[in-house]
Amino acid sequence: MIIGIGVDIVQNSRIKELINKYGDRFLEKIYTAKEIEYCQSKNSFVASFAARFAAKEAVLKALGTGMRNNNWHEIEILNNELGKPEVLLNNKTARRAKKIKVNSIFISISHEKEYSIAQIIMEGEN
């Protein structure tokens, strides 16, 4: 059964402006060290950061909480050995997912020159 869905779209230039203005301070506030390492290894690193930002926002929407009682680092978007993105939840965010009985999280992210988008579907028990 679907427990929650979330979608978010981000203008890549918005993330680029934040990176240019705040640098590592912005990156370290929003992304984990593994996410930063992955995104910085890409030629289109801004779009990779934007897609992960959209994914984190989509997770919060699917959980139905927004940023209340959550932390950006508690949502981690990493790629498996085949390159497929996966969602890892930690601490309060993981406890929220457990409370609403989420047992699977599906993610799709995409980016192009101007925009990045992410969709989350959470499945679980009713």
Automatic annotation (TrEMBL):
HAMAP family reported for this sequence: AcpS
Cellular component aspect of the GO annotation: cytoplasm
Function comment: Transfers the 4'-phosphopantetheine moiety from coenzyme A to a Ser of acyl-carrier-protein.
Enzyme Commission designation: 2.7.8.7
Residues reported to bind Mg(2+): 8, 57
InterPro entries: 4-PPantetheinyl_Trfase_dom (IPR008278), 4-PPantetheinyl_Trfase_dom_sf (IPR037143), ACPS (IPR002582), Ppantetheine-prot_Trfase_dom (IPR004568)
Pfam families: ACPS
Species of origin: Halanaerobium congolense
NCBIfam families: acpS, pantethn_trn
4'-phosphopantetheinyl transferase domain boundaries: 4-118
Protein name, as recorded: Holo-[acyl-carrier-protein] synthase
Membrane-spanning ranges: none
